[in-house]
Write a structure and sequence with these properties.
about 500 residues, alpha/beta, five-stranded parallel sheet, about 20% strand, elongated
């Protein structure tokens, strides 16, 4: 039985970025191998030291050359190839003896790592497993706090050993880049960034995630101070430090700083709130709305709630816009759909005033009460229908009744919002009288109360039998057309085909 070969990534330098699996394998191995220059100091071993145990065999693999010249007959490449062959033979002797061998690698074993030269020579002969590690590129992006790529951008990883003109060509045609292997290559790398016209947004990161890390603009770096363990970053052009994407659309839902999003929660059940609306509510700093509607949103101590009475829509809208002007993320909460007798129109009306110019407003749809009630009984709105509010707070009652008569005369199914309140108990009765002027008493009527809520009740009756006293503001009334039918099982539908 032979031993098993492990290529183990240790991450970019912070010992806490060594994975749990890497630490376990290092501690369990019979042999731990690591590379070093002629000075014999190994960064990889220093990272792994907390996980080593007494009695393990350590194989120090010392490079014969790094950047200096050599008198080897095969030159630099010949000397390196000979070294890798000898190192692989040393590890193979352990594997043949049944000992498990862990080869340590800074960063990730397959990302410009020395381990890959052992892998190419040994993996086809012995059981092998590679344990990935956090790359220096990921570590560098994290310490400067800049995204490398977003959405469909392209990240290009380049070695600094490329000629400056070739580097410049790559840099000029990619969205984001990381240039590795600096040190003595730094002057030509800087030249390439400048030739590509991207030096102004390039960053330099040295010994990322360690206690010796250093970051600064690439243009400000002294070439004499650049070690091998450093890289140049060209971050995503879409974002700067602490900046949102300029000109990029906010993802569906979402909520951007300095913006008002008008959100529909649906008519009752939390399951009827769309993911888009839930996302906008979740990311908001401030929630504005009628108190009972805000109560439907789970409490979040990070958010500030601004409840108000149902009769102060303009004031509520102005408050939301003022909050957004100060840079807050604001969600204005409505029940049902915000564009159906709710806050969307009120917010847009106030937003049109000069003092609120420039404050962006978005409206996210919600499931309407008419849809919810209709679905509970079947499909009474399966053909053409009208939606009318019986409230006369913002329009005269005469206009309401006139519209009802016209909708009834057109034989449309009708959804009646705000049917009856304590302040106007008589209006539903007047509306029924107006409808009966042109509709038969046996016209199907559906009354849904608190649909989606804990006190849900749905009643199917007729226009002639509906008692206004059984209706309140938590109800929605659906009046069918002349074609609306009730099935033997009690379901209601309006056929899609209308008779000639």
């Amino acid at each position: 039985m032979t031993g098993r070969l492990y290529g183990v990534g240790l991450g970019p330098g912070d010992p806490e970025l060594v994975t749990v699996k890497a630490a376990r394998l290092i501690g369990a191995a019979d042999v731990v191998a690591f590379h070093a220059a002629r000075h014999g100091r190994s960064v990889a071993r220093a990272l792994a030291e907390p996980y080593l145990r007494a009695g393990q065999v350590e194989e120090l693999l010392v490079y014969p050359v790094t950047t200096e010249t050599t008198d080897h007959p095969g030159g630099y490449q010949g000397a390196i190839d000979e070294f890798y062959e000898a190192a692989a033979a040393r590890l193979a002797a352990h594997l043949d003896a049944g000992r498990d061998v862990v080869v340590l690698a800074e960063g990730d074993p397959f990302f410009y790592g020395s381990y890959m030269h052992m892998h190419k020579r040994l993996a086809h002969r012995y059981p092998t497993e590679v344990v990935p590690g956090v790359t220096s590129v990921s570590g560098a992006a994290a310490v400067v706090g800049r995204p490398l790529v977003e959405r469909d951008e392209v990240l290009t990883v380049l070695p600094g050993t490329l000629p400056a003109d070739e580097l410049a060509e790559w840099l000029a045609t990619t969205d984001s880049a990381a240039v590795m292997k600096l040190g003595r290559t730094f002057p030509q790398v800087r030249e390439a960034f400048e030739a590509a016209g991207v030096l102004d947004r390039a960053l330099y990161v040295e010994r990322a995630t360690t206690d010796r890390q250093r970051t600064l603009p690439l243009a400000d770096v002294d070439p004499e101070t650049v070690p091998y363990f450093s890289l140049a970053l060209l971050p995503s052009p879409l974002t700067g430090p602490g900046q949102p994407d300029e000109g990029a659309p906010v993802a569906a839902g979402g909520c951007a700083p300095g913006e008002v999003v008008v959100v529909g929660l649906g008519p009752g059940s939390r399951g009827w709130t769309t993911p888009e609306a839930a996302d906008a509510v979740a990311c908001a700093d401030d929630l504005v709305g009628y108190g009972p509607y805000l109560d439907r949103v789970p409490a979040n101590p990070r958010q500030t709630r601004h409840p108000s009475d149902n009769r102060v829509e303009a004031e509520r809208a102005a408050h939301a816009l003022e909050l957004a002007r100060s840079g807050r993320r604001v969600a204005v909460v409505s029940s049902g759909d915000p564009g159906v007798f709710a806050m969307a129109a009120a917010v847009l009306e106030v937003a049109a005033r000069p003092e609120h110019a420039g404050v962006p407003v978005r409206v996210l749809p919600g499931l309407t009460a008419a849809q919810a009630v209709a679905a509970r009984v079947g499909a009474p709105l399966g053909h053409d229908f009208a939606v009318i509010s019986l409230s006369d707070v913002l329009k005269p009652l005469d206009v309401v009744l006139d519209r009802l008569r016209h909708a009834a005369s057109a034989d449309l199914a009708i959804a009646l919002y705000n049917p009856r309140s304590k302040a106007r108990p008589h209006q539903l009765g007047e509306a029924l009288t107006a409808l009966l002027e042109v509709r038969k008493p046996d016209t199907v009527v559906v009354v849904g109360r608190d649909v989606g809520g804990p006190q849900e009740r749905v009643t199917v009756t007729t226009l002639g039998e509906l008692d206004p006293e059984t209706v309140d503001m938590r109800c929605l009334v659906l009046v069918g057309s002349s074609q609306t039918r009730v099935t033997p099982s009690g379901q209601v539908y309006t056929p899609r085909r209308y008779p000639a």
